[in-house]
Write a structure and sequence with these properties.
Blueprint: E1 14-16, E2 23-26, E3 32-37, E4 44-48, E5 51-56, E6 59-65, E7 71-76, E8 82-87, E9 91-96, E10 102-107, E11 113-118, E12 124-129, E13 132-137, E14 142-147, E15 153-158, E16 164-169, E17 174-178, E18 183-187, E19 194-199, E20 205-210, E21 214-219, E22 228-231, E23 238-241, E24 247-251, E25 256-259, E26 267-269, E27 276-281, E28 287-292, E29 297-302, E30 324-329, E31 337-340, E32 344-352, E33 357-362, E34 365-367, E35 374-380, E36 384-394, E37 399-408, E38 422-428, H1 441-455, E39 463-467, H2 473-486, E40 492-498, E41 501-504, E42 509-512, E43 526-527, H3 528-536, E44 542-548, E45 573-578, H4 595-606, E46 611-613, H5 614-628, E47 634-637, E48 649-651, H6 657-662
Parallel strand pairs: 1-26, 31-37, 38-39, 38-40, 40-44, 44-45
Antiparallel strand pairs: 2-29, 3-4, 4-5, 5-6, 7-8, 8-9, 9-10, 11-12, 12-13, 13-14, 15-16, 16-17, 17-18, 19-20, 20-21, 21-22, 23-24, 24-25, 25-26, 27-28, 28-29, 30-32, 32-35, 33-34, 33-36, 36-37, 41-42, 42-43, 45-47, 46-48
Helix pairs in contact: 1-4, 4-5
Length: 663
C-alpha cells in the first residue's frame, strides 16, 4: 500500500496504562452511542436510544427526550450552554442545558443527518448529510449549502475556537471549509472511508481515522500531507482531542490515547472488553469517559497521571457568585476557632459551584477536589494557634476564602474543679407586656443567684441576670450566645429560666416566652431547638439548664440516661432540669417561691453535704416537687452533643477557702 506522507511515525509500544478499575455510570437498558462532557461544567451527556441522559457526579440529573428515532449526532456548544441533537430522519433539536428546556426544533433541508455541530460563536450549525453540507441558524434558517458531486460525505469535524470545518468523503478526500460552507483546501489523503475526524480546540491540527485502522494527524497551517500516521487494529470509530490538544483519544477494538506534541510520542494503551464507539475528555484533564459497544454503562477512567492541562476558557460574565465552601469536619467551629489536643486533624468538606471549581488552595498549596466536590486535608498541628485558610476559585474567576484557627492544647491540660470558673445565666420575668403577670420568677432567680454566690463558689462577676423588661428575645438570645466566647472548656455553666412557657402541638416544639413577645406569635418566642443549639456550641466541662416554666419538659427526650458514675466529674456533661413535663406549672403565691424553685433552693440551702452531684439534686427535686404539688419535674442529660456521661459536682465554698487564700 502506497502512502503520500511527509513524516511517518509508527507507534506500537505501550508506555502508560489508564486506571484498571473505572468508575461506572449505570445507563439501564438501551443502546448508548455518544458521550460528551460539557466544556463548561462537570456534566456528562450520553445518548441512550432516542434520549439524552445527563449525569453529574455519577447521578442522573436530566433526561431529554426527542423523536423516537435514531440519534445521529449530539454536541455541546463551546460554552456548554446548549446541546444540539441531530436525528437520522432530519429532525434537529437544540436544548438549553441550564433550564433543560427545548430551545429550538426544526427539520434539516436534507436527511439522513450524519453530523450536526455548533460553529464558533454558537450562532450557526453545520449539518452534514451524505450529499450536502448545510449552514443553518440555530432556529433552522438556511444560510448556505454545498453539494458534493464526487462522492458521499462520511464524517465531519468543527473546531471549537476557529471558524473551520473538515469533511471526509468516500472518494478519499478530506476537504476544509469555512464557517460559510465555502470549501478552500483538499488534503492529500488516501484513506478509504474515513469514519471520524477531530480538530484540536485551536483548529490547528486535524486527526482522521478510517475503517482500516489508520489514524493520521495533519497540521493544516503548514502542509497538505499528514505529519503523523499510526496503524492500529480495527476500524477507528471515534476521535477526540484533549482540551489542551496534547492527546488524541481513538476508539477502536483496542482503545488508545496518542500523545502528539512530543518529539517521541507515546501511546497510552488500554485493552477493553469491546469496541469503543465514543469517548470524551473531562475538561479538568483528569478523566475520560468511554462507551463500549453493547455495554449498558459508561466507564470513567482516571488519566490524571498524564498531566493533561485543564482548560478554563469559558467565562460567563453573568456569574458573580463565588464557590460555596462547607466544612463537615471538624463539626464545631465556633466564631472561627476550635480547640483540640491532637497533633493531626483531617479537615473535610465540600465545594459547590454551578459553573465548576478551578482550584482549591489550603494555606496557599493547591489541594485535590473529588468529582463530587468533596475534599480531605491532613493538617499537622503545632502547639498553640494554627491558622487554616481555604481559597476556592471557580472557572469564572470568583473567589471564596474561609479561614479559621485551630488551637492545639496539651492533652495533660485536664479539668480541675478547684480552678474552674462557674458561670450563671439567669432569666426571670414577672412583668410581661402581652402575657399574664407572674408572681415570683424574678425572686426565684434572685434567690438562686444569692445561694450560689454565698455557698457554691459562683462569683458575682460571672453572673448574668436579665430581669423583666431586660429579658427581650434579642437580649436572651444574644446573652446566651455570648457564653460561647466567655466560657472555656474547663469552666462550668448553669442556665436558669423562670417565666412563661409555650408548647406548639403542630410543630411539636416548646418555647420560652420573652418579656416583649406577643401572644399567638411564635416568631417572638425562643424555641427549645434554638436554646439547645446554643448550649451545644458552648464548650464547657459541665452545663446545667434549669427551666421553671410551663411545658419546659419538652426540652428532653423520653429516655432516661441519668446515673452515678465513678469519678463522673472528669467527664463532660450536659444536663437539664425542668419544673414540669408537657404541663402547666405553678408560680406560687406572691412574695414566695414557685413550688419547683422552693424545693430546689431548699436543697441547695439546707444540704449538709460538702459536695453532691447534679443527679442527686435532680432526683431530690423530682421526687419532692411531685409530693408537694400537681406537677412532675423531669431531669436528664440533654439531647445534644457534648455529654460524655459526666456530672457537675456542687461544692460548698468552704472547700475552696484554702485555694482562694493562696491566690
Amino acid at each position: 500500500m502506497k502512502h503520500c506522507i511527509g513524516i511517518i511515525t509508527i507507534l506500537l509500544i505501550c508506555f502508560h496504562v489508564v486506571a484498571q478499575i473505572p468508575k461506572e455510570i449505570s445507563l439501564g437498558l438501551g443502546n448508548a452511542k455518544i458521550v460528551r462532557y460539557s466544556p463548561a461544567r462537570d456534566m456528562i451527556a450520553i445518548t441512550v436510544g432516542h434520549k439524552i441522559k445527563m449525569f453529574r457526579s455519577g447521578i442522573e440529573v436530566a433526561s431529554l427526550a426527542g423523536p423516537k428515532t435514531k440519534i445521529a449526532s449530539m454536541t455541546f456548544d463551546s460554552a456548554g450552554e446548549a446541546i444540539v441533537v441531530g436525528y437520522s430522519n432530519g429532525k434537529i433539536l437544540v436544548w438549553n442545558v441550564r433550564t433543560r428546556k427545548l430551545q429550538a426544533e426544526f427539520q434539516a433541508p436534507h436527511h439522513p443527518i450524519l453530523e450536526c455541530h455548533f460553529l464558533e460563536g454558537s450562532e450557526k450549525l453545520a449539518v452534514l448529510t451524505q450529499g450536502y453540507l448545510s449552514i443553518l441558524g440555530i432556529n433552522g434558517e438556511l444560510f448556505t449549502e454545498n453539494y458534493n458531486p464526487k462522492g458521499n460525505n462520511t464524517s465531519m469535524a468543527t473546531a471549537a475556537n476557529a471558524p473551520i470545518i473538515a469533511i471526509a468523503c468516500s472518494d478519499s478526500r478530506i476537504v476544509l471549509a469555512d464557517d460559510q460552507g465555502k470549501m478552500f483546501i483538499e488534503m492529500n489523503n488516501n484513506q478509504k472511508w474515513v469514519l471520524s475526524l477531530a480538530f484540536t480546540p485551536d483548529g490547528k491540527k486535524l486527526a482522521s481515522g478510517d475503517t482500516k485502522g489508520w489514524v493520521k494527524i495533519w497540521d493544516i497551517n503548514k502542509e497538505l500531507d499528514p505529519i503523523t500516521a499510526l496503524e492500529t487494529h480495527g476500524r477507528i470509530n471515534s476521535l477526540e482531542f484533549s482540551y489542551d490538544g496534547k492527546y488524541l483519544a481513538a476508539g477502536t477494538e483496542s482503545f488508545f490515547l496518542l500523545a502528539i506534541d512530543e518529539e517521541n510520542p507515546d501511546v497510552v494503551y488500554k485493552k477493553l472488553n469491546g469496541a469503543v464507539i465514543s469517548s470524551s475528555f473531562n475538561p479538568n484533564g483528569k478523566e475520560i469517559c468511554i462507551l463500549e459497544d453493547l455495554t449498558p454503562y459508561a466507564q470513567i477512567y482516571d488519566i490524571s497521571d498524564l498531566n493533561i492541562t485543564p482548560i478554563f476558557k469559558f467565562r460567563d460574565e453573568g456569574d458573580v457568585i463565588a464557590p460555596q465552601i462547607y466544612i463537615s469536619n471538624p463539626p464545631k467551629i465556633v466564631n472561627d476557632r476550635l480547640n483540640v489536643t491532637v497533633g493531626m486533624m483531617d479537615i473535610q468538606g465540600s465545594i459547590f459551584d454551578d459553573f465548576g471549581v478551578r482550584f482549591l488552595k489550603v494555606n496557599g498549596i493547591e489541594t485535590p477536589i473529588k468529582e463530587n466536590g468533596k475534599f480531605v486535608i491532613h493538617v499537622p498541628l503545632m502547639m498553640g494557634e494554627n491558622t487554616v485558610s481555604l481559597e476556592a476559585k471557580d472557572i469564572n474567576g470568583n473567589i471564596a476564602v474561609k479561614k479559621f484557627i485551630i488551637n492545639r492544647k496539651s492533652d495533660t491540660d485536664t479539668y480541675d474543679p478547684l480552678v474552674a470558673r462557674n458561670f450563671l445565666f439567669v432569666v426571670g420575668i414577672d412583668d410581661y407586656i402581652h402575657w399574664s403577670r407572674l408572681n415570683n420568677a424574678v425572686k426565684d432567680g434572685n434567690d438562686l443567684a444569692s445561694i450560689l454566690m454565698e455557698d457554691y463558689n459562683f462569683k458575682f462577676s460571672d453572673i448574668t441576670f436579665l430581669k423583666n423588661e431586660q429579658a427581650t428575645r434579642n437580649n436572651v438570645f444574644n446573652g446566651l450566645r455570648s457564653m460561647i466566647e466567655k466560657v472555656t472548656p474547663h469552666d462550668n455553666l448553669l442556665i436558669y429560666f423562670s417565666g412563661h412557657g409555650h408548647f406548639d402541638e403542630l410543630l411539636n416544639e416548646g418555647y420560652w416566652i420573652p418579656a416583649d413577645a406577643e401572644q399567638a406569635t411564635p416568631g417572638d418566642y425562643l424555641s427549645n431547638t434554638s436554646i439547645l443549639k446554643i448550649i451545644e456550641n458552648i464548650n464547657t466541662q459541665h452545663s446545667l439548664l434549669v427551666a421553671d416554666a410551663c411545658f419546659s419538659g419538652s426540652l428532653f427526650s423520653d429516655s432516661q440516661r441519668g446515673g452515678y458514675y465513678e469519678k463522673v466529674e472528669k467527664f463532660k456533661s450536659r444536663w437539664g432540669l425542668a419544673s414540669g413535663r408537657l404541663e402547666a406549672v405553678s408560680d406560687g403565691e406572691l412574695g414566695s417561691n414557685s413550688p419547683f424553685s422552693r424545693v430546689l433552693l431548699s436543697y441547695l440551702n439546707d444540704n449538709e453535704s460538702e459536695e453532691f452531684s447534679v443527679s442527686e439534686l435532680v432526683q431530690h427535686v423530682k421526687i419532692r416537687v411531685s409530693e408537694v404539688s400537681d406537677q412532675t419535674p423531669i431531669g436528664n442529660p440533654l439531647r445534644i452533643n457534648g455529654d460524655e456521661g459526666g456530672e457537675f459536682i456542687f461544692r460548698k465554698s468552704s472547700n475552696l477557702v484554702t485555694l482562694d487564700s493562696t491566690e
